[in-house]
What we know:
The protein is an all-beta fold. It has strands at residues 3-7, 10-13, 16-19, 33-40, 48-50, 55-61, 63-69, 78-83, 88-92, 97-102, 106-113, 122-124. The protein is globular.
Amino acid sequence: MLFRLLSVPIVSKKDGCIFKSYIQCDDHFSPSEIYINHIHTSSPSYWRSHTKASLSIQVLSGAASFSFSRHPDTSTVSSILLNELSSWRVLIYPNTWFSFRSLSPQLMLLCLSDIFHDPSEVLSL
Length: 125
């Protein structure tokens, strides 16, 4: 399995709503690091893979196209679109090649990793 879409519970209130991004029992995923990634439309999209980390990504602002593959040089690619109103986040497993690109002027992603960032475990093309 390359990735999994996880439901984001939404609690409606009189004055808006609450998006709950992380639930403890999700695939036994426990974040060690949480960060927000702010991306401009002009940023290039490139393939990357984490050899150890599982990542949970949710779009906070804007819209993005995500692509996933076992090998980035093959034509077997799965793609999804997520935006700030999506009630989904994506859980990306280790050794999955993925890329994303902004479909809006600015994109803000909430990223959770189950390990602290280690540049030596990140592969990119």
